[in-house]
Design brief:
Length: 163
Amino acid sequence: MNNEDNIALYAFRKFGDTVLRAAYASCGSYAEAEDITQDVFLLLHSKPQEFNDDEHMKAWLLRVTINKCKNLKRSFRISRTGSIETEDISGATYEMAVDDGSLRQQIEALPEKYASVIYLYYYEGYNTREIAEMQGKSENTVGSLLRRGREKLRLELEKEGAI
């Protein structure tokens, strides 16, 4: 991280999988997640940032990723046509969870505002204060989104008989 020319490469090697998982959890499409991941690291390369430490860098990368996912969902193409991906991603080189995938699918099916908070809290280990800072929301709002998201997830899992 000493050489600014290599900050994007360093960040990609250290947090590339994390950014890809966050993008996939937020947008639900592996192809879109790959594009967003590329955009995030290209942004860092073209506009190098100063970071206090690796956690600060990770938080910045995840905040940019979530914002890019939100922008994608608002875009004309997605709002009018839906995601471009219909393929099975079982061959993906990462795992969001150790389960059989049903929990991951249920989280992805939640509205984005719940899915992103649940992902950051459970999969990335951030607390509500850190998530609030990343998403530009109050800590109470993040706590509410987390509670509501858990409740929606619980109801869906009960419907399927998973719990």
